[in-house]
Amino acid sequence: MRGDRGGQTLCLIERLCRLAEVNPRRIGLSATIGEPQDACAFLSAGTGRATVVPKLPQGNVRWRLSMEHFYTFPPTHAGAPTKIHAQPPETASTADDALAPRTDTAPAEADPGIGYIFEHTRGKKCLVFVNSREECEAVTTTLRQYCEAKGEPDRFLIHHGNLSESYRETAEAVMKDEEQFQTTVTTATLELGIDIGRLERAFQIDAPFTVSSFLQRMGRTGRRELPPEMWFVMREEPPEARSLLPATIPWKLIQGIALVQLYLEERWVEPPRLDALPYSLLYHQTMSTLASCGEMTPAELAARILTLRYFKQVSQDDFRLLLRHLLETDHIQRTEGGGLIVGLAGERIINNYKF
Q: Which residues make Cβ contacts (< 8 Å) with residue 252, sequence separation at least 6?
Protein backbone atom coordinates (compact mmCIF):
# COMPACT_ATOMS: atom_id res chain seq x y z
CA MET A 1 0.00 0.00 0.00
CA ARG A 2 2.97 2.33 0.42
CA GLY A 3 4.60 1.84 -2.95
CA ASP A 4 4.30 0.77 -6.56
CA ARG A 5 4.43 -2.95 -5.75
CA GLY A 6 1.00 -2.84 -4.13
CA GLY A 7 -0.36 -0.79 -7.02
CA GLN A 8 1.11 -3.20 -9.54
CA THR A 9 -0.56 -6.10 -7.74
CA LEU A 10 -3.95 -4.38 -7.93
CA CYS A 11 -3.47 -3.54 -11.61
CA LEU A 12 -2.60 -7.14 -12.45
CA ILE A 13 -5.56 -8.48 -10.46
CA GLU A 14 -7.89 -6.09 -12.27
CA ARG A 15 -6.50 -7.04 -15.68
CA LEU A 16 -6.91 -10.74 -14.86
CA CYS A 17 -10.49 -10.13 -13.74
CA ARG A 18 -11.26 -8.50 -17.09
CA LEU A 19 -9.74 -11.38 -19.02
CA ALA A 20 -11.60 -13.99 -16.99
CA GLU A 21 -14.79 -11.91 -16.74
CA VAL A 22 -15.07 -12.51 -13.00
CA ASN A 23 -15.16 -10.33 -9.88
CA PRO A 24 -13.72 -12.50 -7.12
CA ARG A 25 -13.74 -11.63 -3.44
CA ARG A 26 -10.46 -10.18 -2.18
CA ILE A 27 -9.13 -10.98 1.26
CA GLY A 28 -6.25 -9.01 2.75
CA LEU A 29 -4.14 -10.17 5.69
CA SER A 30 -1.62 -8.07 7.57
CA ALA A 31 -0.18 -7.62 11.03
CA THR A 32 0.91 -4.05 10.37
CA ILE A 33 -2.13 -2.06 9.26
CA GLY A 34 -2.42 1.30 10.95
CA GLU A 35 -5.66 2.43 9.23
CA PRO A 36 -7.89 -0.61 8.49
CA GLN A 37 -10.58 1.40 6.67
CA ASP A 38 -8.01 2.88 4.28
CA ALA A 39 -6.72 -0.61 3.65
CA CYS A 40 -10.25 -1.75 2.80
CA ALA A 41 -10.67 1.08 0.30
CA PHE A 42 -7.35 0.20 -1.30
CA LEU A 43 -8.11 -3.52 -1.53
CA SER A 44 -11.65 -3.16 -2.87
CA ALA A 45 -10.95 -0.42 -5.45
CA GLY A 46 -12.90 -1.08 -8.64
CA THR A 47 -14.75 -4.14 -7.36
CA GLY A 48 -18.02 -2.52 -6.28
CA ARG A 49 -17.98 -4.81 -3.24
CA ALA A 50 -18.53 -3.77 0.36
CA THR A 51 -15.76 -4.50 2.83
CA VAL A 52 -15.64 -5.92 6.34
CA VAL A 53 -12.94 -5.42 8.97
CA PRO A 54 -13.16 -8.22 11.58
CA LYS A 55 -12.77 -7.16 15.19
CA LEU A 56 -10.09 -9.48 16.52
CA PRO A 57 -9.22 -9.53 20.23
CA GLN A 58 -5.60 -8.68 20.95
CA GLY A 59 -3.95 -10.75 23.62
CA ASN A 60 -1.10 -9.69 25.86
CA VAL A 61 1.86 -10.52 23.62
CA ARG A 62 5.27 -10.72 25.24
CA TRP A 63 8.28 -9.46 23.25
CA ARG A 64 11.99 -9.94 23.76
CA LEU A 65 13.97 -6.96 22.42
CA SER A 66 17.66 -6.20 22.65
CA MET A 67 19.47 -3.16 21.28
CA GLU A 68 23.26 -3.19 21.06
CA HIS A 69 25.27 -0.22 19.79
CA PHE A 70 28.77 -0.59 18.37
CA TYR A 71 31.24 1.92 17.02
CA THR A 72 33.31 0.36 14.28
CA PHE A 73 36.58 1.13 16.03
CA PRO A 74 39.75 -0.75 15.18
CA PRO A 75 39.68 -3.98 17.20
CA THR A 76 42.09 -2.66 19.86
CA HIS A 77 39.60 0.10 20.73
CA ALA A 78 36.36 -1.79 20.25
CA GLY A 79 35.34 -1.75 23.88
CA ALA A 80 31.94 -2.84 25.15
CA PRO A 81 28.72 -2.03 23.35
CA THR A 82 26.00 0.23 24.63
CA LYS A 83 23.17 -2.05 25.80
CA ILE A 84 19.47 -1.36 25.98
CA HIS A 85 17.03 -4.14 26.82
CA ALA A 86 13.35 -3.36 26.42
CA GLN A 87 10.01 -5.05 26.76
CA PRO A 88 6.42 -3.81 26.59
CA PRO A 89 5.51 -1.90 29.77
CA GLU A 90 2.53 -4.14 30.49
CA THR A 91 4.72 -7.23 30.93
CA ALA A 92 6.54 -8.09 34.10
CA SER A 93 10.28 -8.69 34.29
CA THR A 94 11.51 -12.21 35.00
CA ALA A 95 14.77 -14.06 35.02
CA ASP A 96 14.01 -15.19 31.47
CA ASP A 97 14.67 -11.66 30.23
CA ALA A 98 18.43 -12.25 30.19
CA LEU A 99 19.92 -12.58 26.75
CA ALA A 100 21.09 -15.99 25.63
CA PRO A 101 24.83 -16.54 26.14
CA ARG A 102 27.15 -16.58 23.18
CA THR A 103 27.79 -19.92 21.51
CA ASP A 104 30.96 -19.02 19.62
CA THR A 105 33.90 -16.62 19.71
CA ALA A 106 34.60 -14.22 16.87
CA PRO A 107 38.13 -13.84 15.48
CA ALA A 108 40.29 -11.29 17.26
CA GLU A 109 40.21 -8.89 14.30
CA ALA A 110 36.43 -9.08 13.83
CA ASP A 111 34.19 -6.09 13.32
CA PRO A 112 32.56 -5.62 16.77
CA GLY A 113 28.95 -5.59 15.53
CA ILE A 114 29.29 -8.39 12.96
CA GLY A 115 31.37 -10.38 15.44
CA TYR A 116 28.55 -10.06 17.98
CA ILE A 117 26.13 -11.65 15.49
CA PHE A 118 28.66 -14.39 14.72
CA GLU A 119 28.98 -15.22 18.43
CA HIS A 120 25.23 -15.59 19.00
CA THR A 121 24.12 -17.64 15.99
CA ARG A 122 26.08 -20.89 16.15
CA GLY A 123 23.73 -23.81 16.75
CA LYS A 124 20.75 -21.50 16.20
CA LYS A 125 18.31 -20.87 13.37
CA CYS A 126 18.18 -17.11 12.84
CA LEU A 127 17.54 -14.36 10.33
CA VAL A 128 19.79 -11.31 10.01
CA PHE A 129 17.92 -8.42 8.38
CA VAL A 130 19.79 -5.64 6.61
CA ASN A 131 18.50 -2.64 4.69
CA SER A 132 20.14 -3.08 1.27
CA ARG A 133 21.31 -5.80 -1.10
CA GLU A 134 24.86 -4.44 -1.05
CA GLU A 135 24.99 -4.67 2.74
CA CYS A 136 23.47 -8.15 2.57
CA GLU A 137 26.33 -9.33 0.36
CA ALA A 138 28.97 -7.64 2.52
CA VAL A 139 27.66 -8.98 5.85
CA THR A 140 27.31 -12.54 4.49
CA THR A 141 30.83 -12.47 3.09
CA THR A 142 32.23 -11.19 6.40
CA LEU A 143 30.44 -13.84 8.47
CA ARG A 144 31.64 -16.59 6.14
CA GLN A 145 35.20 -15.27 6.45
CA TYR A 146 34.91 -15.58 10.23
CA CYS A 147 33.86 -19.23 9.82
CA GLU A 148 36.90 -19.82 7.63
CA ALA A 149 39.22 -18.05 10.07
CA LYS A 150 37.91 -20.21 12.93
CA GLY A 151 38.13 -23.42 10.92
CA GLU A 152 34.38 -23.94 11.14
CA PRO A 153 31.98 -25.07 8.42
CA ASP A 154 30.04 -22.29 6.72
CA ARG A 155 26.74 -21.74 8.54
CA PHE A 156 25.47 -18.61 6.79
CA LEU A 157 23.05 -18.31 3.87
CA ILE A 158 22.02 -15.30 1.79
CA HIS A 159 18.64 -14.26 0.40
CA HIS A 160 17.78 -11.11 -1.58
CA GLY A 161 15.94 -10.10 -4.73
CA ASN A 162 18.94 -10.01 -7.07
CA LEU A 163 19.74 -13.69 -6.54
CA SER A 164 18.40 -16.33 -8.89
CA GLU A 165 15.19 -18.07 -7.90
CA SER A 166 16.95 -21.43 -7.50
CA TYR A 167 19.53 -19.89 -5.16
CA ARG A 168 16.82 -18.31 -3.00
CA GLU A 169 14.81 -21.55 -2.92
CA THR A 170 17.88 -23.43 -1.71
CA ALA A 171 18.21 -21.07 1.25
CA GLU A 172 14.48 -21.40 2.00
CA ALA A 173 14.68 -25.20 1.94
CA VAL A 174 17.62 -25.24 4.36
CA MET A 175 15.82 -22.89 6.73
CA LYS A 176 12.71 -25.11 6.73
CA ASP A 177 14.78 -28.20 7.57
CA GLU A 178 14.33 -28.71 11.32
CA GLU A 179 17.62 -30.62 11.51
CA GLN A 180 19.79 -27.77 10.20
CA PHE A 181 20.80 -24.74 12.25
CA GLN A 182 21.93 -22.06 9.87
CA THR A 183 21.47 -18.31 9.72
CA THR A 184 20.25 -16.40 6.67
CA VAL A 185 21.26 -12.81 5.96
CA THR A 186 18.42 -11.17 4.06
CA THR A 187 16.69 -8.00 2.96
CA ALA A 188 12.92 -7.45 2.83
CA THR A 189 12.51 -10.61 0.71
CA LEU A 190 12.01 -12.71 3.87
CA GLU A 191 9.88 -10.18 5.75
CA LEU A 192 6.69 -12.11 5.02
CA GLY A 193 4.99 -14.68 2.84
CA ILE A 194 7.64 -17.42 2.71
CA ASP A 195 7.51 -20.32 5.17
CA ILE A 196 10.96 -20.90 6.63
CA GLY A 197 9.95 -22.88 9.70
CA ARG A 198 10.66 -22.08 13.33
CA LEU A 199 13.20 -19.33 14.00
CA GLU A 200 14.86 -18.76 17.34
CA ARG A 201 15.49 -15.06 16.85
CA ALA A 202 15.94 -12.29 14.31
CA PHE A 203 18.79 -9.81 14.18
CA GLN A 204 18.37 -6.35 12.66
CA ILE A 205 21.46 -4.42 11.59
CA ASP A 206 20.59 -0.74 12.08
CA ALA A 207 16.99 0.37 12.25
CA PRO A 208 14.64 -0.56 9.39
CA PHE A 209 13.16 2.36 7.48
CA THR A 210 9.57 1.96 8.78
CA VAL A 211 7.67 0.76 11.83
CA SER A 212 5.74 -1.53 9.51
CA SER A 213 8.95 -3.23 8.38
CA PHE A 214 10.07 -3.65 12.00
CA LEU A 215 6.77 -5.36 12.87
CA GLN A 216 6.93 -7.65 9.83
CA ARG A 217 10.48 -8.68 10.65
CA MET A 218 9.69 -9.12 14.33
CA GLY A 219 6.74 -11.29 13.31
CA ARG A 220 9.00 -13.84 11.62
CA THR A 221 9.94 -15.10 15.09
CA GLY A 222 7.84 -16.03 18.07
CA ARG A 223 5.90 -18.86 16.53
CA ARG A 224 5.01 -22.18 18.13
CA GLU A 225 4.60 -20.70 21.62
CA LEU A 226 7.93 -18.84 21.65
CA PRO A 227 7.92 -15.06 22.28
CA PRO A 228 8.88 -12.82 19.31
CA GLU A 229 12.56 -11.98 19.69
CA MET A 230 14.66 -9.39 17.87
CA TRP A 231 18.21 -8.26 18.56
CA PHE A 232 19.11 -4.87 17.11
CA VAL A 233 22.76 -4.33 16.20
CA MET A 234 23.48 -0.64 15.60
CA ARG A 235 26.80 0.06 13.86
CA GLU A 236 28.19 3.56 13.38
CA GLU A 237 31.48 5.12 12.41
CA PRO A 238 33.24 6.56 15.47
CA PRO A 239 33.22 10.37 15.70
CA GLU A 240 36.47 12.24 15.28
CA ALA A 241 38.21 13.15 18.52
CA ARG A 242 37.48 16.86 18.06
CA SER A 243 33.98 16.46 16.66
CA LEU A 244 31.15 18.60 18.01
CA LEU A 245 27.39 18.12 17.88
CA PRO A 246 25.70 16.70 15.88
CA ALA A 247 28.59 14.50 14.69
CA THR A 248 28.98 12.91 18.14
CA ILE A 249 25.33 11.86 18.43
CA PRO A 250 24.70 8.13 17.74
CA TRP A 251 21.94 8.76 15.21
CA LYS A 252 21.33 5.14 14.24
CA LEU A 253 20.85 4.18 17.87
CA ILE A 254 18.39 7.04 18.40
CA GLN A 255 16.52 6.08 15.24
CA GLY A 256 16.12 2.51 16.49
CA ILE A 257 14.90 3.60 19.91
CA ALA A 258 12.38 6.02 18.36
CA LEU A 259 11.07 3.39 15.97
CA VAL A 260 10.40 0.90 18.78
CA GLN A 261 8.86 3.59 21.00
CA LEU A 262 6.47 4.69 18.27
CA TYR A 263 4.83 1.31 18.29
CA LEU A 264 5.15 0.24 21.91
CA GLU A 265 3.91 3.53 23.34
CA GLU A 266 1.53 4.78 20.64
CA ARG A 267 0.79 1.72 18.47
CA TRP A 268 1.68 3.96 15.51
CA VAL A 269 2.21 2.47 12.04
CA GLU A 270 2.83 4.47 8.86
CA PRO A 271 -0.47 5.41 7.17
CA PRO A 272 -0.87 4.35 3.53
CA ARG A 273 -0.22 6.87 0.76
CA LEU A 274 -3.24 6.55 -1.48
CA ASP A 275 -3.05 9.92 -3.22
CA ALA A 276 0.27 9.59 -5.04
CA LEU A 277 0.54 9.96 -8.82
CA PRO A 278 2.11 6.61 -9.81
CA TYR A 279 3.87 7.65 -13.01
CA SER A 280 6.51 4.92 -12.76
CA LEU A 281 3.79 2.28 -12.56
CA LEU A 282 1.85 4.03 -15.34
CA TYR A 283 4.83 3.48 -17.62
CA HIS A 284 5.15 -0.14 -16.48
CA GLN A 285 1.50 -0.98 -17.15
CA THR A 286 1.53 0.84 -20.50
CA MET A 287 4.50 -1.17 -21.73
CA SER A 288 3.29 -4.51 -20.34
CA THR A 289 -0.18 -4.00 -21.82
CA LEU A 290 1.29 -3.29 -25.26
CA ALA A 291 3.55 -6.33 -24.95
CA SER A 292 0.57 -8.47 -23.96
CA CYS A 293 -2.02 -7.21 -26.43
CA GLY A 294 0.08 -6.22 -29.43
CA GLU A 295 -0.73 -3.24 -31.64
CA MET A 296 -3.29 -0.81 -30.20
CA THR A 297 -4.46 2.67 -31.09
CA PRO A 298 -3.71 5.43 -28.57
CA ALA A 299 -7.40 5.58 -27.68
CA GLU A 300 -7.59 1.80 -27.13
CA LEU A 301 -4.47 1.88 -24.98
CA ALA A 302 -5.79 4.78 -22.90
CA ALA A 303 -9.09 2.94 -22.42
CA ARG A 304 -7.21 -0.12 -21.09
CA ILE A 305 -4.85 1.78 -18.79
CA LEU A 306 -6.73 4.77 -17.43
CA THR A 307 -9.75 2.69 -16.45
CA LEU A 308 -7.59 0.74 -13.99
CA ARG A 309 -8.68 2.11 -10.63
CA TYR A 310 -5.14 2.73 -9.44
CA PHE A 311 -4.77 5.42 -12.11
CA LYS A 312 -7.97 7.32 -11.30
CA GLN A 313 -5.98 10.51 -10.68
CA VAL A 314 -4.11 10.37 -13.98
CA SER A 315 -5.65 12.62 -16.64
CA GLN A 316 -5.94 12.07 -20.38
CA ASP A 317 -3.44 14.92 -20.88
CA ASP A 318 -0.94 13.25 -18.52
CA PHE A 319 -1.21 9.98 -20.47
CA ARG A 320 -0.94 11.76 -23.82
CA LEU A 321 2.26 13.44 -22.61
CA LEU A 322 3.67 10.08 -21.54
CA LEU A 323 2.95 8.50 -24.94
CA ARG A 324 4.57 11.43 -26.73
CA HIS A 325 7.70 11.02 -24.61
CA LEU A 326 7.82 7.25 -25.22
CA LEU A 327 7.53 7.78 -28.97
CA GLU A 328 10.40 10.28 -28.93
CA THR A 329 12.65 7.88 -26.98
CA ASP A 330 11.76 4.77 -29.06
CA HIS A 331 10.17 2.97 -26.12
CA ILE A 332 7.09 2.65 -28.32
CA GLN A 333 6.70 3.03 -32.10
CA ARG A 334 3.86 4.06 -34.37
CA THR A 335 2.97 1.68 -37.18
CA GLU A 336 1.98 2.68 -40.70
CA GLY A 337 -1.63 2.16 -39.73
CA GLY A 338 -1.33 4.61 -36.81
CA GLY A 339 -1.25 1.98 -34.05
CA LEU A 340 1.28 1.72 -31.24
CA ILE A 341 3.67 -1.17 -30.58
CA VAL A 342 6.65 -1.72 -28.28
CA GLY A 343 9.76 -0.02 -29.70
CA LEU A 344 13.36 -1.24 -29.74
CA ALA A 345 14.33 0.63 -26.55
CA GLY A 346 11.20 -0.69 -24.89
CA GLU A 347 12.01 -4.26 -25.91
CA ARG A 348 15.36 -4.04 -24.13
CA ILE A 349 13.67 -2.84 -20.95
CA ILE A 350 10.69 -5.19 -20.73
CA ASN A 351 12.87 -8.22 -21.45
CA ASN A 352 15.15 -7.36 -18.49
CA TYR A 353 14.38 -9.32 -15.32
CA LYS A 354 14.30 -6.09 -13.29
CA PHE A 355 11.26 -4.90 -15.30
A: 69, 206, 207, 234, 235, 236
